[in-house]
Amino acid sequence: MPQVRIIAKNFMDMVAALPAMKLDKLYENAFICEAILRSLPPLAKKYVLQMLCIEVPVTAKSMEEWVLPDGVSKHRVAIDRLIQLRIFTETVDRKRETTYTLNPIFQTNLKKLLLYGVVLPREPMPSNVTVRLPSSEDLEAFALGQWECFLLQLINSSQIERPSNISSSMMKIFQRGLLSQRDKEAPRLTESGFQFLLMDTNAQLWYIIREYISNSEERGVDSADLISFLLELSFHVTGEAYNINTLTEVQKNTIKDLADLGLVKLQQGRKDSWFIPTRLATNLSVSLTDSSSRKQGFVVVETNFRLYAYSTSKLHCEILRLFSRVEYQLPNLIVGAITKESLYSAFENGITADQIISFLQQNAHPRVAERVPSVPENVTDQIRLWETDLNRVEMTPAYHYDGFPSRDLFEGASDFARGYNALLWEDPEDSKKMSLVVKAENHVHMREYLSRQRQ
Amino acid sequence: MASAPSKLYADDVSLLMVLLDTNPFFWSSSSLPFSVFLSHVLTFLNSILLLNQLNQVVVIATGYNSCSYIYDSSTSTNQGSDNGRMPARCVNLLQKLEEFVIEDEQLIKEGLREGIASSLLSGSLSMALCYIQRVFRSGPLHPQPRILCLQGSSDGPEQYVAIMNAIFSAQRSVVPIDSCYMGSSNSAFLQQASYITGGVYLKPQQPNGLFQYLSTVFATDLHSRAFLQLPKSLGVDFRASCFCHKKTIDMGYICSVCLSIFCKHHKKCSTCGSVFGQAQSDVNSTSNKKRKTPET
């Protein structure tokens, strides 16, 4: 699977990779404890919960006793994750017995959460100050619009109506890895760039946020602070207004960037200004295992390879253009066809058939989404067939040797190459020409062997 | 916290229906005070909601004479009247619980039943199942439901038929019934309920550490249960109650048409109306004693 996907899926890996001191500092914030708890695998969550009131170390053996034979690997994954995130500390005592203890800061914070319930990070502003708050539909539309605008800018589309305020240097950072630019040529999307576009919004968001965080040190912002602020933000209530003066200076700067991404909406009142978190922000802490938040689909694929996309979005059009021939565009409808040529250009760009099919399935129009399969079978089969067509030839870098002085040397060399399992082709026995083809990686060995033989 | 943004279906998203026994006759004689019990349960509910933002908890109070929904995490918001230390979630729940207990008490005064002071478990089980059915029908994406009975009072044999019906419908819709029994002796009804539906039956040895039992055993989501060894009950009391006098019996008469159970011989089945032949009882032919055939 694509690299981007793996990176974007494991935001918590990034948290786990933080130095121990920073990680311990993060756990001082109860919201982070909560967000991290929620991101854990189900079994790990359960272990944390059952250890919550136990102050003494628990032996690994007593925990393993609960595990069924089928669950051993899941158990291992859960424990490893907990140790990685420093939620569990593993100690081996003199009797070589492994015991686990829960991180004390994490433990106290979670206990507080359980006893006193979840407290909001900050109080929303009273409604008499904040007149004309956007309705939830407006807010949703704002967030999606902002995000789409950002994505269009990211892929350097010519169709941007209004550029967002994200500085070009910041944009460059985001584009790193997604676009490649050769001298004087227009930048082109790279393989991972295409894959990025086909991911769902949440995964895309994580990718961008990840880049944003990993770049924070260069801007003089502590990455741990940034992570804690972002996670805290996700615990605010969607659509409520929060006073911007409750933020620190660094957070104020951050929130401006976030507004450009559509995570929050900024509003200016007579005296105060406030920010309103959108759904994009509150979904940040949704554990990534279930990040596929369902959106209304828009694509209908017919058995004759025609594609109808009920969308007004320019971004959708751009995405469809990646692998289909867009024929015409009506105000709310994009009509295209999946052709062999359009797919070949997609494959050349590094998009796989499975990605295209899963994109079509995930975005299936509600009318066809109920059907099984939502994309006609003949279409999916054909897409896969066309892809395998391209894979009929396998390339292996190799060296060609000929002009052997004697038959013996030639046969010796071919046996030698066979010994490395590197012989790709040799002249048939009866042929006069003595030549053989050997994998490039074994060229050094071949050369040594031949020079030894010559002496 | 706001309710689930959109319906998702992940591995461990669960809908937990908690049936809370509020029977005053039991709690007045229990070694564990109701207030302590309640604080354990509230913490447990908090922890379930903490584990996943899409988890949902519904609490149904099982009283002596009635039962009622007292808390639903999907409808109640966590904001609002935040007086002092108590979080709004608990305040709402406790308020509703108090109202319920008062109402239930008034019903007791109207008609005190004779015999064992059991709670209306059949009623609350049916309510839980109705709620789950509604969730099932709300769309293809829904949390995985399970029922947790926190029961203290002893079984009411007169509810046998209703409870068995509820158990079988839970079994049909693959909803496990977990039971945590706080009373002194084991509850045959709950043992059977958990056994039939594949849930866990547990009688805490140390009621003071109830939270630990709840968080270790009953907080396990259905996804994780495939990998863990949860406590199993040693034996299940499979005895049935007869339909005529609602007594728990070891041996009895069964209608071969509708399988109704009677403690003594009847001329006619009270459930389906089949007419039985003459029982050759108390005389010599013992082989026919238990096999009753209706008159052909």
TrEMBL record, chain A:
It holds the Pfam family Tfb2. One of its GO terms (cellular component) is transcription factor TFIIH core complex. Its main location: nucleus. InterPro entries: Tfb2_C, TFIIH_p52/Tfb2. GO terms for molecular function: ATPase activator activity; double-stranded DNA binding. GO terms for biological process: nucleotide-excision repair. Residues 381-450 form the Transcription factor Tfb2 C-terminal domain. It is found in: Nucleus. Keywords: DNA damage, DNA repair, Nucleus, Transcription, Transcription regulation. Component of the general transcription and DNA repair factor IIH (TFIIH) core complex which is involved in general and transcription-coupled nucleotide excision repair (NER) of damaged DNA. Belongs to the TFB2 family. PANTHER family: GENERAL TRANSCRIPTION FACTOR IIH SUBUNIT 4, TFIIH, POLYPEPTIDE 4. NCBIfam families: tfb2 (TIGR00625). This is RNA polymerase II transcription factor B subunit 2. It comes from Prunus persica (Peach).
From TrEMBL, chain B:
Pfam families: Tfb4. It is found in: Nucleus. Transmembrane segments: none annotated. InterPro entries: TFIIH_Tfb4/GTF2H3, vWFA_dom_sf. Its main location: nucleus. Coiled coil: none annotated. One of its GO terms (molecular function) is zinc ion binding. GO terms for biological process: nucleotide-excision repair; regulation of DNA-templated transcription. GO terms for cellular component: transcription factor TFIIH core complex; transcription factor TFIIH holo complex. Keywords: DNA damage, DNA repair, Metal-binding, Nucleus, Transcription, Transcription regulation, Zinc, Zinc-finger. The keyword Transferase does not apply. It comes from the Eukaryota. Component of the 7-subunit TFIIH core complex composed of XPB, XPD, TFB1/GTF2H1, GTF2H2/P44, TFB4/GTF2H3, TFB2/GTF2H4 and TFB5/GTF2H5, which is active in NER. The core complex associates with the 3-subunit CDK-activating kinase (CAK) module composed of CYCH1/cyclin H1, CDKD and MAT1/At4g30820 to form the 10-subunit holoenzyme (holo-TFIIH) active in transcription. Component of the general transcription and DNA repair factor IIH (TFIIH) core complex, which is involved in general and transcription-coupled nucleotide excision repair (NER) of damaged DNA and, when complexed to CAK, in RNA transcription by RNA polymerase II. In NER, TFIIH acts by opening DNA around the lesion to allow the excision of the damaged oligonucleotide and its replacement by a new DNA fragment. In transcription, TFIIH has an essential role in transcription initiation. Belongs to the TFB4 family. This is General transcription and DNA repair factor IIH subunit TFB4. It comes from Prunus persica (Peach).
